[in-house]
Specification:
Blueprint lengths: L5 E4 L5 H11 L6 E4 L5 E2 L5 E2 L6 E8 L3 E2 H22 L5 E3 L3 E4 L2 E13 L2 E12 L14 H4 L7 H16 L7 H10 L7 E6 L2 E10 L5 E5 L3 E5 L5 E3 L1
Parallel strand pairs: 1-2
Antiparallel strand pairs: 2-5, 3-4, 5-10, 6-10, 7-8, 8-9, 9-10, 11-12, 11-15, 12-13, 13-14
Amino acid sequence: MYIIKLITYKSLPSTNQTLYQLALEDPIHFMVVSTFNQTNGKGYVNNKWESTVNQNLTFSFLINRNLTVQRELPVLNMWVAVTIYEVLTNWQVPSKIKWPNDIIVHGKKVGGILIKSKISNNKITFSVIGIGLNIYQTNFENLARATSIKLEKPDFNKPLENCLMEMLYAFEKSFEDFNPLNYKKIIDLYHKNLFKRDEVATYEFDGMTKNGILRGIDDNGNAVIEIEGLGLMTFQHKEVKLNY
């Protein structure tokens, strides 16, 4: 068992920030911080993650392994997304992975991933994996593209504590195979379940709106999109917006 320290809070601004601060003092591999009442959660690039009390999963866990920034950090993100996808599949909830860090069910966002790493000399010394997953929340004011497991699968009734432990066990188990020999398998699974891959969609970039086809994600974690009239183009996150 990797999980040797599980810290739960009744309320917390951000599990990701809390665990990162704890890790600076003692980076215990697979230490977990969890709360069912996260009041100031953060998404990718400082987007805010809102969550209703006692209805969703908000937790972070620590990976204490030296990884390369350019090659292995993108694979780490893919591994997290694929593991969540596999858990949802076990729950009979069909999902897709939206580049770079969202989990989609029936075209709506059900979860998100935030990875914050400590980097020294182009090496990652540890990574804090933050996850938010909407389980029982049914009211999403001003969030037309948000959803929850309960909304998409009304007969879902697994206790939140069980959801958390099943998710943590899945990460613990699958991390045993997180090594260069299995990176291709992770990358292939990610691409197989990539939202809008090989489909025509509308993309906004550089003040333009054009049709394009997402062809995949490159080794640096950037999206490779075939843009109508322009050919293959590579985008970092926030350089392009998918309209769907």
